[in-house]
Amino acid sequence: MPFFRVFPAHQRQRIGLRAVAWAAVLALLALSAPCAAAAKVNLEDYQVGSYEIGGDFALTNQEGKTTGLRDFRGKVVVLFFGYTLCPDVCPLTLTEMSRLNKLLGPDAGKVQPIFVTIDPGRDTSGRLKTYLANFESGIIGLTGSARDITQVAKLYRAKFAQRSVGSAAGYLIDHTAFIYLVDTKGKVRYLVPADAGADVLAEGVRQLLRG
């Protein structure tokens, strides 16, 4: 089984992060996110706690301007790594990130969703702008050099690897599928499976806004 294999949704299961040692969590980060279960969410399952993950960075947004995580101090950042040619996980995740805004109502202005590409060779600022126009909620897309993207991914323990395919796309990218909820001071507080859904994200965001 490939190390970065993306499992079909019907084969995934939710994994409570508190139920495993953090050494095992690092291994899980190399796999796609498990599927959301129907049971009520316990945010403690997704707490990062004192584990060191994340940090400041600056890349180029879809308007061609330098944008850093520090620019959003005072807001909760909803951060996801993906790419525009992703056939399934990324568009579904961005759709849920868009739905999050509707669930938050007046608090939506206190949240900034960010999409960092892991395919900088194809995902230029212009391509990100066109792609993200398909989603509501003011998602900021970020790109940069391959070196810059790799450095940011390392900060967040995000894993990705190209996989050749016999199509016009040339290759797809297997990647981790977690959403990082970053508090108003820039610290990653929750690591949520990408397909957990907007309701789970909304619960986490509200918790962070309450301090």
SSE diagram, text form:
Elements: H1 22-28, E1 58-61, E2 66-68, E3 76-82, H2 89-104, E4 111-117, H3 125-132, E5 140-143, H4 146-155, E6 160-164, E7 171-175, E8 178-182, E9 188-193, H5 198-209
Parallel strand pairs: 3-4, 4-5
Antiparallel strand pairs: 1-2, 1-5, 3-8, 6-7, 8-9
Helix pairs in contact: 2-5
Round the Cα radius of gyration to an integer and report it. 16 Å
> Which consecutive residue ranges, at least 5 long each, have pLDDT under 50?
1-39
Q: What proportion of the residues is helical, as a percent range?
A: 25-40%
Question: How many individual β-strands?
Answer: 9
> Hey, roughly how much beta strand do the residues contain?
15-25%
Q: Distance between the terminal alpha carbons, to the nearest Å?
A: 42 Å
Backbone structural class: alpha+beta
For the report, how would you describe the main beta sheet? 7 strands, mixed
**Mean pLDDT, all residues:** 83
Overall, the morphology is globular
Describe it.
This protein has helices spanning 22-28, 89-104, 125-132, 146-155, 198-209, and strands at residues 58-61, 66-68, 76-82, 111-117, 140-143, 160-164, 171-175, 178-182, 188-193. It is of the alpha+beta class and 211 residues long. The chain has a seven-stranded mixed sheet, sandwiched between helices. The protein has a two-stranded antiparallel sheet with strand order 6-7.
